[in-house]
Specification:
single chain; Rossmann fold; 7-stranded mixed beta sheet; 5-stranded mixed beta sheet; 18% strand
């Protein structure tokens, strides 16, 4: 099969665009997966090791996420190869160049993702006019500042904990990836009585069975330090976070952190995905056999894109957060109940829910788009 079509199936992708400008070191890719429900919304991810396969997997996750959330948007994703900690001037040049290179791809709307933020979206907006997750000054609802994804994650966890047979109040939580999503997820879970016992970032991890102060860890991050530098608790290797005994384990960083080679080590009763595609299919099956309930990523972490879509259509912050709560709680309940009724993985139930909505939308498309 032609390499360009190695990802193709009944849903997409609609297009894959590679961007390369050697003079400024620009290398990037856009995958627009499916636009049957509307123009694609998906984040711009910046990292030194991203590739087209990861971009496609993330774009497909956005197709499913947006469909499951009932948004009038399809799924897409863009990646920019580079270290997000590079000097601000160079990062701005690359982000603006990426936006300009994709200016004619009008079926894709940029959003923030790992390695990019609302400032990056302001640069995109200034260049091509298509971005969400903007600063307040540009009419945006700042997703990272408010913690929209973490807010939705906490609601998914509250619903799922009941299905897993334990109360959220008093539940021990470990967060892998204490960044924009993980920090706010910990904060909102703590507000509901859960206890953060471990957290990690790219530089290390910390474990304290008696509990960690979420705001103290947030202060470490604001000061540019790792959570592992916090004086309370025991420093551990980041990979050892999977061994921490807890009720809820939250992956909120890179893809495939729970795999066949470490799934048996996970000592939690519930996995609620803050990151996109954080577990492999085989790992989820292993967790299911062990009685570990897993809420799929595109159900649990849809808060950010729900907020972004509502921002794009002019909704208020209050309306956006009400929609996050309502849609994520309803979808989590529907998916977990359906999975139990049918005896399938929650991911299977979630994919069936989302794909059925995409297929219906594809059946209504105009022939003129071809």
């Amino acid at each position: 099969m032609d390499d360009a079509f190695r990802f193709a199936d009944e849903l997409g992708p609609a297009k894959i665009v590679h961007v390369h400008e050697p003079g400024i070191g620009l290398r990037g890719t856009l995958v627009v997966d499916n636009v049957a429900t509307g123009p694609a919304i998906g984040g711009l991810r910046m990292a030194p090791d991203v590739d087209t396969q990861e971009c496609f997997r993330l774009a497909r996750a956005m197709t499913l996420k947006n469909a499951a959330a009932g948004l009038p948007h399809g799924g897409g994703k863009s990646i920019l190869v580079g270290d997000p900690r590079m000097p601000a001037e160079r990062k701005e040049r690359l982000v603006r160049a990426m936006a300009c290179a994709l200016a004619d791809c009008r079926d894709y709307i940029f959003g923030p993702d790992m390695g990019t933020d609302e400032t990056c979206m302001a640069w995109v907006k200034a260049e091509i006019g298509r971005a969400v997750g903007l600063p307040r000054e540009l009419g945006g609802i700042p997703l990272d500042e408010l913690g929209a994804t973490g807010f939705g994650l906490a609601h998914a966890a509250e619903v799922a904990a009941r299905h897993a047979g334990f109360p959220l109040a008093g539940a021990r939580v470990a967060v892998q990836g204490f960044g924009a999503v993980g920090l706010h997820a910990a904060r909102f879970l703590a507000a509901r009585g859960a206890l953060l016992v471990a957290a990690s970032d790219s530089q290390g991890a910390i474990h304290a069975p008696e509990g960690l102060d979420v705001e103290a860890l947030a202060a470490e991050k604001r000061a540019g330090r790792s959570v592992a530098e916090h004086p309370k608790g025991r420093r551990i290797e980041g990979d050892d976070l999977v061994d921490v005994e807890c009720e809820i384990w939250v992956p909120a960083a890179r893809p495939d952190v729970i795999r066949e080679d470490n799934a048996a080590r996970l000592r939690a009763r519930l996995l609620v995905s803050g990151a996109n595609i954080p577990t492999t299919d085989a790992a989820e099956e292993m967790l299911q056999r062990r009685g570990v309930l897993s809420v799929p990523d595109f159900i649990a972490n849809a808060g950010g894109v729900i907020c972004a879509a509502m921002e794009y259509h002019g909704a208020t912050q209050t309306a956006a957060f009400q929609a996050i709560e309502e849609r994520i709680r309803a979808n989590t309940e529907e998916v977990l109940a359906d999975a139990k009724r049918r005896g399938v993985l929650p991911r299977r139930a979630a994919v069936d829910l989302a794909v059925s909505r995409v297929r219906r939308a594809m059946g209504w498309r105009r022939w003129s788009i071809f």
